[in-house]
């Protein structure tokens, strides 16, 4: 937690309201003295590769340890990440990539939903808004940090390797890769419109509906290319 998170927030070009929410969460995380295990830590953004035929499914684990790994999530709908069915392919891919991992801990943080700019908070500035969110988090940490354990100063939901049918995950990848090959071959594919609103509305949904890309709403960013095949997970 010693990183200059304000510099990171600025690089993301978040709104003052979004910055206040993230800032309050980071301050509360620090002041609640949430414990982060260091023993056996293999690294952060730990690369995992699953070979399937001539293709590699590549994923990056947020924190990897010798016998388990940790994924971090921040969401306005944290319940989504407590359901195993919603995590089968991300966690399953990581389990396939490393036989030593027996479990996964998903650290789920609720994105604050407190509003500002209305009612008695109409004149609230970003600093006051952040302090109000911070106070709310400290008053009920289990609401924001799912699975909060006051004694161990940890949070998260643990899933075990044995809960996942890894043969099914692997066979699904094989099937999907065949579909991709067929799509490339015939120049056609099917749209999964059911994903437009799950787990949250896609930020590019207005473009899909109107076909218009507004430079006032969207900024093109150059993203570095990562070699090694397809990226698994989310």
CATH architecture: Alpha-Beta Complex
- When the domains are counted, the total is 1
How confident is the prediction overall: mean pLDDT? 88
Quick one: CATH class? Alpha Beta
Low-pLDDT regions: 225-234
Strand content is 15-25%
Number of helices: 7
Task: Assign an overall shape.
Answer: globular
Order of helices and strands: HHEEEHEHHEHHE
Could you give the distance between the termini? 25 Å
The CATH topology is what? Answer: Lambda Exonuclease, Chain A
Structural class: alpha/beta
Q: How many strand segments?
A: 6
Radius of gyration: 20 Å
Largest sheet: 6 strands, mixed
* Helix-residue proportion: 25-40%
Description:
There is one protein chain. The protein has 234 residues and is of the alpha/beta class. The protein has one domain (5-231): Lambda Exonuclease, Chain A, CATH 3.90.320. Helices cover 34% and strands 19% of the residues. It is built from 7 helices and 6 strands. Strands 1, 2, 3, 4, 5 and 6 form a 6-stranded mixed β-sheet that branches. A hairpin with a 2-residue loop joins strand 2 and strand 3.
Q: What's this entry about, in short?
A:
Helices cover 34% and strands 19% of the residues. With 234 residues, it is an alpha/beta fold.
Write the layout of secondary structure elements.
Elements: H1 5-12, H2 16-31, E1 41-52, E2 55-65, E3 68-75, H3 88-97, E4 103-110, H4 126-139, H5 141-144, E5 157-160, H6 166-186, H7 205-210, E6 230-231
Parallel strand pairs: 2-6, 3-4
Antiparallel strand pairs: 1-2, 2-3, 4-5
């Amino acid at each position: 937690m010693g990183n200059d998170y304000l510099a990171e927030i600025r690089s993301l070009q978040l709104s003052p309201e979004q910055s206040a929410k993230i800032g309050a969460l980071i301050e509360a995380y620090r002041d609640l003295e949430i414990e982060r295990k260091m023993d056996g830590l293999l690294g952060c953004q730990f690369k995992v590769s699953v070979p399937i035929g001539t293709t590699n499914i590549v994923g990056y684990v947020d924190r990897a340890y010798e016998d388990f790994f940790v994924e971090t999530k921040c969401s306005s709908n944290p319940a989504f990440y407590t359901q195993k069915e919603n995590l089968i392919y991300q966690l399953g891919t990581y389990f396939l990539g490393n036989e030593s991992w027996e479990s996964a801990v998903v650290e789920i943080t609720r994105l604050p939903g407190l509003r500002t700019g209305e009612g008695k908070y109409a004149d609230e500035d970003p600093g006051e808004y952040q302090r109000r969110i911070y106070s709310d988090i400290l008053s009920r940490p289990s609401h924001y940090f799912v699975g909060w354990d006051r004694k161990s100063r940890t949070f998260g939901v643990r899933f075990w390797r044995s809960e996942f049918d890894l043969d099914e995950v692997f066979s699904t990848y094989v099937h999907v890769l065949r579909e991709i090959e067929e799509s490339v071959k015939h120049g056609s594919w099917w749209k999964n419109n059911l994903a437009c609103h799950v787990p949250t509305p896609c930020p590019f949904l207005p473009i899909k509906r109107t076909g218009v890309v507004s430079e006032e709403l969207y900024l093109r960013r150059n993203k570095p290319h990562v070699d090694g095949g397809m990226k698994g997970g989310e």
